[in-house]
């Protein structure tokens, strides 16, 4: 078992690897974490996710843009792929399964993929339908998987018009399902008007919301750990 | 005699005084198609119907600019990609899309044949429709054909996510690809401009201020736009540019594109834009297409349009009233009419 100083060093390596979009550093840090017996969940949250939170801050401050974030995400996944098999099943008090996709007529999936990544990290089971998804497929997939959450993304004023149709259909079949929408042309007003339960303001905020969500889950995890 | 819509908007490009506020949509293909009761698939194969629609909708909408081919831009990539297995996907909602991305290296660029652009039936049909619309109503309206900007078109060939990363990992490849796309687009417009089409309408959403940083825009998006605008100028043609997202932190780059006008997204601070561009370049903006045009009443649309004009257009030096992006097909005609009425009835 690594001592505290060594543990800190490995977590820093994972964190900085994500921030500096250095896939090799993340792989190296993850391998070291596994070899030296660090808790994999801790390595993910206090290393990789902590780095992604800083990336979110840099994005907000307009120091980072989308290409940088995509590379940071690659770095995060490089570490996550190694750490995930060593994770203890996370008991977060939520079942956590989500259907996510970009609505029909829209091929923009970068924002959606970033949100998906955060769900992956948080231990959600993610059913990613991809982009340009026929509207009924969201409804079918939600029923098939009994997911608690459906996330709809649209980046075009011309494609977002499919969203209310999906929301209506899902709510008709399963009123308990939560629906979050996001993407540049959408708004909180629209989410309310269309009967969605949640909203992420745009690509940057979708990421921020996802980070918030993970941070919230982290808090739950920490509280749970403190009670033990 | 009153200036025609065409003369009005050309005056704005030249930053000269107009009798009323110039006004136009940007694209508007999807709205028109829904309003006319047709589909992309039908128009792709029916030049006459496309011409009829463009003319009927031009008279109904009353924008100064008429865009032919709005929603068909992906065919410029599909045309060259067909040999490599790229197909077309028509769908119920949204513009037709391409089914695959086929370029990932400089070697792949070498495999693309620019001549293929003129072998695609849909590209040829849209070009023919543009010529006919120009012939029929080109004296009254400024008739243009739409395309993606070189950066966006390049990303269509490569795949947006891979292309974004390549701006860091393979910058030389990205530079080569955007330059190739600028040459391809010049080739595409050459016969049209020769036949009298006066303007190139360029949408560059992937160069959005929300996606790439100012340095990347300067390095990868501006030079190919400049290449296109230089060519257009040499032929006496105009270039209409729209870039999505918040570009307030890079306003000084727009005059460098050499384009005749830039239409701003609703996220741009239009007062700041006016300050940066006044006397340097015509600009348009930026009534929110969803928040205002879709969701508000006609009276609120009127107020929003007046506010934008008061801030950006009162000095009558090249400002054009435009929505912040292309409009959703579900906007009411009442709101669209009000949007145009405010500008058309404006007295300086």
Task: Provide a concise account of the structure shown.
The complex is a heterodimer of chains A (228) and B (348). By secondary structure, chain A is α/β, with parallel strands linked by helices. Chain A has helices at 4-19, 23-35, 40-60, 66-83, 110-121, 135-145, 163-173, 188-194, 203-227, and strands at residues 97-102, 125-128, 149-153, 178-182, 198-200.
Description:
The complex is a heterodimer of chains A (about 230) and B (about 350). The model of chain A has no long low-confidence stretch (mean pLDDT about 85). Helices cover about 60% and strands about 10% of the residues of chain A. Chain A has 9 helices and 5 strands; from the N terminus they run ααααβαβαβαβαβα. In chain A, β3, α7 and β4 form a beta-alpha-beta unit. Chain A has 2 domains: about 80 residues, Orthogonal Bundle (Methyltransferase, Methionine Synthase (B12-binding Domains), Chain A, domain 1); about 110 residues, 3-Layer(aba) Sandwich (Rossmann fold). Chain A has about 230 residues and is an alpha/beta fold. Chain B has about 350 residues and is an alpha/beta fold. Chain B has a single domain, classed as Alpha-Beta Barrel (TIM Barrel). Chain B contains 16 helices and 9 strands. In chain B, α5 crosses α8.
């Amino acid at each position: 078992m690594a001592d505290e100083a060594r543990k800190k060093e490995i977590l820093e390596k994972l964190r900085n690897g994500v921030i500096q979009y250095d896939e090799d550093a993340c792989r190296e840090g993850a391998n070291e974490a596994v070899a030296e017996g660090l808790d994999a969940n801790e390595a993910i949250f206090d290393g990789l996710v902590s780095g992604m939170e800083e990336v979110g801050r840099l994005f907000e401050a307009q120091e980072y843009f989308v290409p940088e974030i995509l590379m940071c995400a690659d770095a995060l996944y490089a570490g996550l792929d190694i750490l995930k098999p060593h994770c203890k099943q996370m008991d977060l008090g939520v079942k956590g399964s989500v259907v996510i996709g970009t609505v029909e007529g829209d091929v923009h999936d970068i924002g959606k993929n970033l949100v998906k990544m955060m769900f992956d990290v948080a231990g959600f089971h993610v059913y990613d339908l991809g982009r340009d998804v026929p509207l009924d497929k969201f409804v079918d997939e939600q029923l098939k998987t009994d997911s608690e959450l459906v996330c709809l993304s649209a980046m075009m004023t011309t494609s977002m018009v499919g969203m209310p149709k999906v929301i209506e259909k899902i709510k008709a079949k399963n009123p308990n399902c939560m629906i979050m929408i996001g993407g540049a042309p959408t708004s909180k007003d629209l989410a309310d008007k269309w009967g969605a339960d949640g909203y992420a303001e745009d690509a940057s905020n979708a990421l921020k919301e996802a980070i918030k969500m993970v941070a919230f889950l982290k808090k739950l995890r920490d509280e749970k750990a403190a009670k033990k | 005699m009153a200036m025609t819509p065409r003369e009005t908007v050309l005056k704005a490009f030249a930053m000269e005084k107009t009798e009323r506020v110039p006004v136009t949509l940007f694209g508007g293909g999807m709205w028109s198609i829904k309003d006319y009761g047709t589909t992309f698939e039908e128009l792709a194969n029916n030049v006459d119907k496309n011409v009829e629609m463009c003319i009927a909708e031009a008279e109904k909408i009353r924008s100064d600019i008429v865009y032919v081919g709005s929603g068909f831009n992906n065919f410029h990539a599909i045309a060259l990609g067909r040999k490599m297995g790229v197909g077309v996907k028509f769908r119920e909602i949204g513009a037709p899309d391409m089914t695959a991305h086929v370029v990932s290296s400089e070697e792949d660029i070498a495999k693309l044949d620019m001549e293929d652009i003129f072998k695609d039936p849909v590209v040829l049909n849209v070009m023919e429709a543009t010529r006919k619309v120009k012939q029929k109503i080109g004296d009254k309206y400024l008739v243009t054909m739409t395309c993606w900007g070189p950066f966006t078109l390049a990303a269509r060939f490569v795949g947006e996510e891979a292309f974004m990363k390549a701006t860091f990992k393979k910058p030389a490849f990205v530079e080569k690809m955007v330059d190739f796309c600028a040459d391809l687009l010049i080739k595409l417009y050459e016969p049209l401009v020769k036949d009298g089409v006066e303007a190139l309408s360029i949408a560059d959403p992937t160069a959005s201020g929300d996606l790439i940083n100012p340095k990347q825009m300067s390095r990868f998006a501006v030079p190919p736009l400049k290449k296109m605008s230089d060519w257009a100028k040499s032929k006496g043609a105009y270039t209409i540019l729209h870039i999505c997202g918040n570009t307030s932190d890079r306003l000084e780059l727009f005059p460098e594109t050499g384009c005749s006008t830039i239409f701003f997204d609703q996220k741009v601070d239009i007062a700041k834009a006016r300050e940066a561009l006044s006397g340097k370049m015509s600009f348009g903006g930026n009534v929110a297409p969803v928040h205002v045009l879709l969701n508000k009443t006609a009276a609120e649309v009127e107020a929003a349009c007046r506010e934008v004009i008061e801030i950006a257009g009162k000095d009558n030096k090249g400002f054009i009233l435009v929505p912040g992006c292309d409009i959703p097909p579900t906007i009411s005609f009442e709101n669209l009419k009000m949007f145009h009425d405010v500008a058309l009835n404006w007295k300086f």
